[in-house]
Amino acid sequence: ILNVEQSPQSLHVQEGDSTNFTCSFPSSNFYALHWYRWETAKSPEALFVMTLNGDEKKKGRISATLNTKEGYSYLYIKGSQPEDSATYLCAFYNQGGKLIFGQGTELSVKP
Amino acid sequence: NAGVTQTPKFQVLKTGQSMTLQCAQDMNHEYMSWYRQDPGMGLRLIHYSVGAGITDQGEVPNGYNVSRSTTEDFPLRLLSAAPSQTSVYFCASSPGLAGTNEQFFGPGTRLTVL
User: Fold this and answer.
1) Which residues are CB-contacts of A68 (< 8 A; sequence separation ≥ 6)?
2) Cα angle at A18 between A35 and A26, to 5 degrees?
3) What is the DSSP string of B23-35?
4) Is B47 exposed, middle or buried (0-12, 13-18, 19+ CB in 10 A)?
5) Alpha carbons A47 and B57: distance in angstroms, whole number
6) Tens of pLDDT along A69-99?
7) Cβ(A80)–Cβ(A109) under 8 Å?
8) Is the distance from CB of B49 to CB of B33 less than 8 angstroms?
């Protein structure tokens, strides 16, 4: 059983705050780590796909880092805006063909 | 491109009924998968396919069947619906392997089993 854990489960911040969340995954047989953004009543949309230890990806105010040896990835949002409110999902792939998702971190940004 | 399409959007079944959730993609993606979304549990993988004619089980396959006769279509069959299968179902696809390629998700099917 592949265990993908995300923390915290939910987060409430004020507009302008910077925030980060964690995704933990098995460090053995690592192949790729995905991050998705999921707005209410919509479908998940990909943010990043990361494959290399030490990888850092950035899209606007959102960035992610990857540590495959210790089995974690961080997602950072700089200067949160109300439109960043969503559930952020990570997913782990280990060459077995299965992409396994964590339970998500629900972010709420208050104006 | 229409992307990933799912039908129906909503469905209500009675316990014991069977039905098929349809999923199609027009991007010539090799990898397709079905997930269910339940409150507090993220997305759980039901079945997946790495190409036409090839399917495999995910984390929660019991009560569901799939087939992949064409690259475009990946239907999910509920054999005998149970209230525990009340959920939102998402189909996803990606080019090549799921590992290094982002998943494209359909709009979801909300299923209620009474």
Assistant:
1) A27, A30, A33, A52, A53
2) 35
3) EEESS--SEEEEE
4) buried
5) 26
6) 999 999 999 999 999 999 999 999 977 778 8
7) yes
8) yes
Start-to-end CA span in chain A (Å): 40
* B103 DSSP assignment: -
Taking CB atoms and an 8 Å cutoff, what residues of chain B touch A100? Answer: 45, 59
Amino acid of residue A81: Q
Residues of A in contact with B30 (CB under 8 A): none
Residue with tokens 């392997």: B97
Chain A contact set for B50 (CB, 8 A):
97
Residue B72: what pLDDT?
97
Look at residues B22, B17, B21, B23 and name the one whose alpha carbon lies nearest to residue B3.
B23
**Cα–Cα distance measured from residue B51 to residue B76, given in angstroms and rounded to the nearest whole number:** 15
Is any Cβ of chain A less than 8 angstroms from the Cβ of B65?
no
Q: Are the beta carbons of B102 and A49 separated by less than 8 Å?
A: yes
pLDDT for A34 beyond 80: yes
Selected residues 75-114 of chain B with any CB under 8 Å from a CB in chain A: 90, 97-108
